[in-house]
What does this fold into?
Amino acid sequence: MSTPASTSLPTLALTERSHVLVLTGAGISAESGVPTFRAIGGLWEGNRVEDVASPAGFVRDPLLVWRFYSERRAGLADVAPNAAHRALAALEARLGERFLLVTQNVDGLHVGAGSARVIELHGNLMQSRCTVCDRPPFEDRQVYRAGVAPMCGRCKAAGRDAVLRPHIVWFGEAIDGEHLARIERFVRAGGRDLVFVAIGTSGVVYPAAALVDAARSVGGRTWLVNAERSDNADRFDHVVLERAGAAVPALFAAAA
Ligand code: APR
It folds into this structure.
């Protein structure tokens, strides 16, 4: 069930029992200057992003993949959180355990804005991990020179060569089951008091695009804030066709 798109900025009523689950996508970072996947037409230097950001792409040409991610790391150097990121951090400060933020973005801007209850569903651009050993993902802000594939220092110390990879969930790879279990627990805890808000996402990449269905299945209310109608817009109770930088702070401002 959906209602017609709002023309003026609405506000969202919360009670002391409300549990707020927020899903964000590339659109929330657009006003910070991070290009969305759709904005670049899904292409990078003539390559389909799916072909670069995939396990098969990495096996085929790890140097190309590292050049792609090094360029994206460099692009984040001057980027800062915007009013929408900050409004979500402020909402978390008010709701505490009754708030959970799930982001498909790998730009780290939610953490930068002060959010702590964040699940980075698709990984983090500023982290790497080894393709061989089981050391945990670690912070790596390095912009590697073209033609350089970074190697794992720990493996080298053990006498073997192992290439690093970005800590990103690539196309065709599974989402961490612990993340999904944590989201499911939150949805169940919220039940009919769940308020689900999706912001700046085209609603085509799963499982994130199905969170609206999970929220509906427990009787929660669902809101979409997006610059345009996303693919799954019909499955939301409320659709706000606005830019996130203005709409998100307004939506939560009166949500006492
Ligand atoms: N405010 C709100 N929405 C916006 C804004 C804005 N300022 N600017 C753009 N949008 C909307 C676009 O209209 C579009 O619907 O944000 C959406 C961004 O869509 P995508 O670029 O497809 O990003 P996203 O949905 O996050 O992509 C999902 O696909 O590229 C892969 O794994 C990657 O996490 C990514 C996933």
